[in-house]
Each structure stands twice: as structure tokens, then as C-alpha cells.
């Protein structure tokens, strides 16, 4: 009873306070105010009023020019007097709403008034950076009166159809100041908006247009500011390492950039760069990824609730967008680290019409050591380039290019080894606003990945040189595609996406060429070139059913043809969101995904000896059915998200026991087998900011299983990356202006691995191409229990300090210093197994390399 009385008393107090505040309506205009200057811009007077009185004034740039100069009469002594002088004889009126003053057209209805229910008008445009005029992807526009809004697409474009009326909207983007704009909806309007970067904040809180578009467990949008929060090996800012700090995502090997998502493997992640697939994303043994942070604008990451436009992989989508280039001024960035240097340049070709961006990086440490140790060479380079051209208000063209290569070389008098790999991609995009409600994007893409291994060994006997082995191994994949992506905005409650894609893919899974008759390898062996065709069509409707309930219903259809094999897949995608209140929401999703390409994992570390193969009559497409349920809330400034998931995977692929990449099997299909997998778990993320300090925690509790008919006696066994507990903690402290301290700590349960129980000679399977002499015998292992053993847990602490100094001439210098693995934890990266046949035993040894690695990086922005 006492608790009920207290609640009733508090309710009465709230009603009294609300009534008092409501009674104050109409008094803001009478607030005393004397202009501090007699002549200035309209915007300067508004800012002065806000600064002196705390009263916010909103207006639309479509009805009032804030840069227009006006002159006071000298008899203005209140806010109302100043505003009347500013308006003059313009057909505008002053409207007071609670704690805000609006300036609107004289014939505009009250805010939220819709007039005739049949009168709807589209408003569209672009949201861009105020300084560079670069489009902002995923910027939000939210209309409180309608409890609705929208977000910009991948090109910064938005469109929303609203009922007649006047509406206040919040325009926001991560890392930018939130702007308030008044929309007077009485006919079609093109309203482009510019947002100002907010350099004073660690991270901007995003006002979401739809709660379904917020960062939650299934979808994460990252800006470069978010990515820079996480320290990486050797001080490299890297997209893939940043993603490893989120729940549901784990690294394969500690210190590398690979990711496994919710029970999947690396081949189940769709990695995109400006809409083009990348088939391998590691540089330099996984020290850094092919995504050059200097060239990146933003990243969209999905691990569930997949939009219908995505397909081709079953675990995750990493969609990276590069910078378009500054439309106003020429600038760039130079970075020098311990192992590489990079340079990025951007600027206008035609001011406000055409811009460019080019970025290049390369390792330099190999050149430094070459004069002293020429036998070994390890290096990589990559280049990004982009041109953005505005044909007119309704048509844009984008041209993108990427090329990257890695090389490892070792040479002695009697041996030579070299392996090279890399990606080359290109794209041409044309997006067009067909009318205010229709947006169409046409994309042509090219992607190619190749891997080459060359090995030559010689025997010198009595001064006579004879070749023991001389061969070249090649693996490659190449695709060409044409995509159409359409968006239709019928009204503010619906956003419809539709489109299709045709892709033609060429595979060379494995091919080995040899010129040595002493090696039991044919002169040329392998699978040869294989060809596939894929056609996809999709449609999706994002619906705002009510103020609290929204949904996204999608369907993705794919048809695959390779040789005599034809397969069709119909994949539903469903997402629901319910706003419990202004701070909390419940959401659920179901996704069916399929992939027709398979990455055969050779269980090597940091080298791309895995190879891509197509689905065939024998090898079926991989499929996944995933369901999620989550809760998103903010309590006392702490943003929390908790989510549970379950995923069934069909036709997952692995090597057949005893088979390897290079053996005597001419057909790669004889080396692999398929089974099923399932993964389930719970994820938790917490984020909090207090003044100059921000912190985040990500925890994952997960189970991950596999089952194959011919492995482990057909019984289920833990997958290699079945890590029960994953904990990631990140913190940032802005000590003072220009000085920031960061710390990241991570913990992962040890991965599962398999030990053999028998070893025996293998006379007819291995190639013997790297044995010491022609009579060497190769051995193979027998396994009876799969993944029954565990490596020790992995954990480490990384710290860093950034020192930033800005100059008046727009130069910005940053020194970054830090330590990777502060307490020198010996995390086992992988194990080696050797046999001593004379003693009749096997020796297991864990290898750990990344212990206490300091770094220093210099960055210059100009």
C-alpha cells in the first residue's frame, strides 16, 4: 500500500510539473533580449539568442537563408522583436512549440497536422559532410511527430514521402553534430543537408530513424572513429581486428585478422569492397588485412537478420565502403609504421562535380634488411583508387579499383621457394534518381584472386647438379558480374528494395606443373578450369506498422549452374522490432542463407593455400538457417544489447582424413567430404561514456559442433573454433586535448584440436616433392577421436597512447606508441607434431610468437 501511495504521489507531481511547463507556452517570445550587434547574418542572430537565453530556433533552409545579412532597427528588446525584424515582409510566421521556436511559411499548418489524409508529398536529397561534400552512408532522419524516419543508402541518398504538414526532424550521423531541420511538406522538395564533424566527442550517440536500423546484435555500422578505438598489432588500424572486439566474432589465430562468426569458418564470410567480393583478405601472415584504413569511409557488418540484397555466404557480411574523395580541397595522409608506409591523396578534379581518391601502401622493412639478409624476402603492397563524378542532380558515376600482392621468398644455393598471392578488383557504378520515389543503382564488377607456389630443390653430388624437384602450383578464382539495385519509397511507412545479379565465375582449384621425371607427379595435373553461372533476384519491404512495431520482410532467390549441375534456392529473410519505450526494443529475426562456393581449408596459418571450388553434382551448396532474439536498451547511460541465436548448417565441407592440397588425387572432389554443423549461444554487449572516458564490454557464450559420416565414427564433435567463452573489454581515456590513452583486453577459451593415435608409411598418396631424397618415405596419421583435446586459453592486454597536434595550416601530426601483449602471454598460435620412429613416439609442440611487441606509428594529415 505504501508503495502504491508513493507511486500515486510521484504521478501527481509529474502531472503538476507538466501542467506548469505547458502553461509556459507562449512566453518564450517575450524573453528579454537585446541584440549584441546591429548587423549580421540571420544565423548569427539565432546563435546569439540561443547562447544568451537557451532558446532553440529551428527553420528550414528551403524557406529561410541563414547566411542572409540583416540590420536591426535599434528598438529590439525581446526575442519576438528580433525575429520580427529578421522576417520583415517575408511570407513567414513564428510558431512557439514547448521549448523551441519554429519559423515556418505563413500558410503552413501546425506541426504534426496532416491536412487531407490523401495528400502525401516526397522529400528527397543527399546528406553530406559539410567540409568535403562527401556522402554520408547510414545517416538518420527522424520525425518525432510521426515516430518515423529513414536512413541514407550506400550513396548518401534518402527519400521519404510524408503527409502534408510541418515536421521537425533530427538529422544525425555517428561522429557528427546532430542537426534539427524543419520540413514544410506541401509539395515535392529536394533538400540536401550538410552535417558538421564533431571532433570534441569520443563517440556520437546516434538518433535512429528506425530502431530496426540501430546497431544491435545482428547489425553493426562502423565509422573510422569506431575502428580507431581498438589497438592492433604493430599499431595498425584495421577493420577486421575491430570486428573481432564485438560479440559473436572471434579471431582464428591470436594476432591475425581472420574472423569466424557464430560457428562459421572464414570461407562463409562475404567480404566486399565497394560492392565487389574479395576472396582473400589477409596480408603478411594475417598481420593486417587488405582493407586499407586510410581509404575507408564506413563499414556495414551483418551476422544475422541479413537484408535480402545480400547472398552467397552463410555466416556474415563485411561491406566496406571507400572514400569518394574531397569535392572541395586537396588533402591527404601519410603514415609510417614499423613494417609499412602508406600515402593517401584526395581532392577535386572539378570542384563540386568530380573528385578522386588514391591510396597506396607497401612494406619497407624487407628493403631495409635486404643488403644483410638477402636469402629471405617478405613483402606486400596494395593500391586503392576511386573517381566520383556528378553528372547532374540525378545521376552519379563511381569508378573503383584495387590491386594487392603478397610475396614470400626463400633462396639458397641448392633450393628456391616462392609463393605469391593477391586480389585485383574493379567496379563501375551508375546511380540514378528516376523520380523522387525511385533510386536505381547499376554496378559492373570484376574480381580475381590467384595463388602461386614455386619450389625448386637441387642435389649437388661430386660437383654435378641434378634437379630433385621443380614444380609450380597454381590456384585461382575470377568472376564478372552485373547488378541492378532499386529502391522505392512509396510513403514514410514503407521502403522497398529490389534487384538482381548475374555472375560468371571461373575456377582453377589446383594445378601443379612439374618438369622433373624423378618426382611422381605428372607434367601437369589438377582439375583444370571450371565455369559457373549464378542468377539472383531479391525483393524486400521495410514496414513501419505502428509507432512501436516495425518489420522487414524479404525474399532472395538464387539459381546456380555449373556444368551439368543446376540448383535453385529460395531464401526468406524476416526481421521484427518492437519499441518497448523510447530507450528499449525487442527484436527477432530468421534468415535462410545459401552459398555455392566452398573454401577448402588446408589448415595452414597465414598462407592462402586454401582454395575455392564450386558446387557440383557431388559437392552440394552449403546452407544455413539462423534465428535470433534480442533486447536493446539504455539504462543510466549504459547502452546494452543481449541476444541469443541458433544456427543450423548443412553441407559444410572439410578435407577427407589423410588428404591434403598436394597429393595424387587428380580430382579435388575426392579430397573433401560434407556434413552438417550447428551453433548456438548468447551474446552481451555494454557501452558507457562518462566525460572523457568510454568503455565497452563484449561477451559471448557459444557452442559449435560438426558431424561427418566418415569422421569420428560418425559422431558429433566440437568444431576447431568451438571456444566456450569470449570476453573483450575496450577503454578509451581522453587525458586532454590531443592526448588519448587506449587499452584492450581479450580472453578466449582454447580451441579444439585432434591428435593421431597411429602413424604409418604412405606409399601412394603424397607427392614426395619436398622430401630430402628420392627414396624418402612419407608418413600419414590415423585419427580415431576428433577434436578431443584443447589448447590453453588465449588472453592478452594491448595498450596505446596517441599524441595529436594540430597546426594552423591544417596539418595534423599524430604519434602513436603502444605495446601488443603487455604481460607477454605465450598464446599458442598452432601446434606441430613430429614423429620419432626409432623411439616409437610422437612429439607435440605448441608455437607462440607474438609476445610483448612494442610499436610506434607516425601519421601526418594535410
From TrEMBL:
Residue ranges of every copy of the TonB-dependent receptor plug domain listed in the record: 235-313
Membrane-crossing residue ranges in chain numbering: none
User: Domain TonB-dependent receptor-like beta-barrel: where?
Assistant: 391-822
Protein name, entry field: TonB-dependent receptor
PANTHER family referenced in this protein's UniProt entry, alphabetically: HEMOGLOBIN AND HEMOGLOBIN-HAPTOGLOBIN-BINDING PROTEIN 1-RELATED, TONB-DEPENDENT OUTER MEMBRANE RECEPTOR
On whether RNA-binding is a keyword of this UniProt record, the answer is: no
Which GO annotations describe the biological process of this protein?
A: siderophore transmembrane transport
Asked if the Swiss-Prot or TrEMBL record annotates the protein with the keyword Cell wall biogenesis/degradation, the reply is: no
> GO CC annotation: what is one?
cell outer membrane
Q: What is its main location?
A: membrane
Do you know which SUPFAM superfamilies this protein is assigned to? Carboxypeptidase regulatory domain-like (SSF49464), Porins (SSF56935)
Q: Where in the cell is it found?
A: Cell outer membrane
Look up and give the membrane topology term: Multi-pass membrane protein
GO molecular function of the protein, one example? siderophore uptake transmembrane transporter activity
What family is it from? Belongs to the TonB-dependent receptor family.
Instruction: Write the record's keywords in alphabetical order, separated by commas.
Output: Cell outer membrane, Membrane, Receptor, Signal, TonB box, Transmembrane, Transmembrane beta strand, Transport
Q: Where is the signal peptide?
A: 1-23
Amino acid at each position: 500500500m505504501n508503495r502504491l501511495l508513493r507511486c500515486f504521489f510521484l504521478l501527481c507531481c509529474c502531472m503538476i510539473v507538466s501542467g506548469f511547463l505547458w502553461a509556459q507556452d507562449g512566453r518564450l517570445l517575450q524573453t528579454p533580449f537585446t541584440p549584441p550587434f546591429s548587423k549580421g547574418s540571420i544565423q548569427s542572430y539565432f546563435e546569439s539568442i540561443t547562447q544568451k537565453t537557451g532558446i532553440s530556433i529551428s527553420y528550414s533552409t528551403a524557406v529561410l537563408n541563414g547566411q542572409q545579412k540583416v540590420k536591426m532597427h535599434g528598438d529590439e528588446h525581446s526575442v519576438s522583436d528580433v525575429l520580427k525584424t529578421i522576417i520583415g515582409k517575408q511570407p513567414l510566421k513564428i510558431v512557439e512549440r514547448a521549448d523551441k521556436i519554429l519559423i515556418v511559411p505563413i500558410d503552413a499548418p501546425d506541426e504534426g497536422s496532416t491536412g487531407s489524409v490523401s495528400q502525401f508529398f516526397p522529400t528527397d536529397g543527399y546528406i553530406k559532410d559539410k567540409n568535403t561534400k562527401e556522402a554520408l552512408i547510414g545517416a538518420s532522419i527522424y520525425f518525432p511527430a510521426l515516430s518515423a524516419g529513414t536512413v541514407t543508402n550506400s550513396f548518401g541518398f534518402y527519400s521519404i514521402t510524408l503527409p502534408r504538414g510541418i515536421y521537425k526532424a533530427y538529422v544525425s550521423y555517428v561522429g557528427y553534430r546532430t542537426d534539427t531541420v524543419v520540413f514544410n511538406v506541401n509539395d515535392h522538395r529536394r533538400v540536401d543537408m550538410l552535417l558538421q564533424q564533431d571532433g570534441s566527442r569520443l563517440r556520437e550517440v546516434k538518433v535512429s530513424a528506425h530502431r530496426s536500423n540501430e546497431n544491435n546484435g545482428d547489425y553493426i555500422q562502423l565509422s573510422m572513429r569506431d575502428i580507431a578505438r581498438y589497438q592492433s598489432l604493430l599499431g595498425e588500424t584495421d577493420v577486421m581486428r575491430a570486428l573481432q572486439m564485438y560479440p559473436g566474432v572471434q579471431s582464428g589465430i591470436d594476432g591475425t585478422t581472420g574472423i569466424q562468426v557464430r560457428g562459421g569458418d572464414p570461407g562463409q564470410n562475404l567480404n566486399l569492397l565497394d560492392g565487389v567480393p574479395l576472396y582473400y583478405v589477409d596480408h603478411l601472415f594475417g598481420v593486417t588485412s587488405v582493407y586499407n584504413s586510410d581509404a575507408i569511409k564506413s563499414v556495414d557488418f551483418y551476422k544475422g537478420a541479413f537484408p535480402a540484397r545480400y547472398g552467397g555466404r552463410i555466416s556474415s557480411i563485411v561491406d566496406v565502403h571507400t572514400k569518394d574523395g574531397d569535392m572541395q580541397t586537396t588533402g591527404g595522409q601519410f603514415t609510417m609504421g614499423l613494417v609499412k608506409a602508406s600515402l593517401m591523396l584526395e581532392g577535386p578534379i572539378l570542384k563540386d562535380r568530380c573528385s578522386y581518391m588514391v591510396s597506396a601502401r607497401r612494406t619497407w622493412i624487407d628493403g631495409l634488411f635486404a643488403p644483410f639478409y638477402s636469402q629471405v624476402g617478405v613483402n606486400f603492397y596494395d593500391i586503392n583508387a576511386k573517381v566520383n563524378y556528378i553528372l547532374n542532380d540525378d545521376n552519379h558515376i563511381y569508378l573503383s579499383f584495387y590491386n594487392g600482392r603478397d610475396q614470400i621468398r626463400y633462396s639458397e644455393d641448392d633450393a628456391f621457394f616462392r609463393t605469391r598471392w593477391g586480389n585485383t578488383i574493379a567496379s563501375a557504378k551508375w546511380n540514378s534518381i528516376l523520380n523522387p520515389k525511385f533510386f536505381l543503382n547499376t554496378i559492373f564488377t570484376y574480381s580475381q584472386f590467384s595463388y602461386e607456389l614455386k619450389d625448386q630443390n637441387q642435389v649437388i653430388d661430386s660437383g654435378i647438379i641434378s634437379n630433385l624437384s621443380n614444380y609450380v602450383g597454381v590456384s585461382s578464382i575470377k568472376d564478372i558480374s552485373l547488378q541492378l539495385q532499386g529502391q522505392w519509397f512509396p510513403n514514410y511507412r514503407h521502403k522497398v528494395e529490389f534487384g538482381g545479379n548475374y555472375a560468371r565465375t571461373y575456377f582453377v582449384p589446383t594445378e601443379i606443373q612439374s618438369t622433373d621425371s624423378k618426382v611422381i607427379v605428372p607434367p601437369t595435373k589438377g582439375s583444370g578450369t571450371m565455369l559457373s553461372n549464378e542468377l539472383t533476384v531479391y525483393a524486400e519491404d521495410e514496414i513501419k506498422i505502428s509507432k512501436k512495431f516495425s518489420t522487414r520482410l524479404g525474399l532472395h532467390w538464387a539459381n546456380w549452374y555449373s556444368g551439368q549441375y543446376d540448383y535453385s534456392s529460395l531464401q526468406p529473410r524476416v526481421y521484427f522490432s518492437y519499441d518497448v519505450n523510447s530507450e528499449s526494443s525487442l527484436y527477432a529475426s530468421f534468415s535462410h542463407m545459401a552459398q555455392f562456393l566452398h573454401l577448402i581449408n588446408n589448415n595452414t596459418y597465414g598462407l592462402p593455400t586454401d582454395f575455392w571450388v564450386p558446387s557440383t553434382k557431388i559437392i552440394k551448396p552449403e546452407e544455413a538457417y539462423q534465428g535470433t532474439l534480442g533486447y536493446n536498451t539504455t539504462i543510466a547511460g549504459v547502452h546494452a544489447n543481449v541476444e541469443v541465436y541458433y544456427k543450423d548448417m548443412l553441407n559444410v565441407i572439410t578435407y577427407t582424413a589423410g588428404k591434403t592440397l598436394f597429393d595424387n588425387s587428380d580430382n579435388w572432389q575426392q579430397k573433401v567430404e560434407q556434413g552438417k554443423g550447428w551453433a548456438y549461444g548468447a551474446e552481451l554487449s555494454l557501452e558507457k561514456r562518462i566525460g572523457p572516458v568510454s568503455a565497452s564490454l563484449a561477451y559471448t557464450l557459444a557452442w559449435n559442433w560438426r558431424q561427418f559420416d566418415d569422421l569420428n565414427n560418425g559422431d558429433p564433435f566440437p568444431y576447431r573454433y568451438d571456444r566456450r567463452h569470449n570476453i573483450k573489454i575496450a577503454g578509451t581515456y581522453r587525458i586532454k586535448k590531443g592526448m588519448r590513452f587506449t587499452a584492450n583486453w581479450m580472453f578466449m577459451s582454447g580451441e579444439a584440436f585432434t591428435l593421431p593415435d597411429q602413424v604409418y608409411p604412405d606409399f601412394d598418396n603424397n607427392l614426395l616433392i619436398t622430401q630430402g631424397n628420392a627414396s624418402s618415405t612419407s608418413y600419414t596419421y590415423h585419427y580415431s577421436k576428433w577434436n578431443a583435446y584443447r589448447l590453453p586459453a588465449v588472453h592478452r592486454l594491448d595498450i596505446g597512447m596517441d599524441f595529436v597536434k594540430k597546426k594552423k595550416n591544417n596539418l595534423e601530426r599524430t604519434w602513436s606508441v603502444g605495446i601488443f601483449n603487455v604481460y607477454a602471454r605465450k598464446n599458442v598460435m598452432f601446434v606441430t607434431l613430429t614423429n620419432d620412429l626409432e623411439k616409437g613416439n610422437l612429439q607435440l609442440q605448441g608455437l607462440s610468437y607474438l609476445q610483448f611487441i612494442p610499436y610506434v606509428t607516425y601519421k601526418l594529415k594535410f
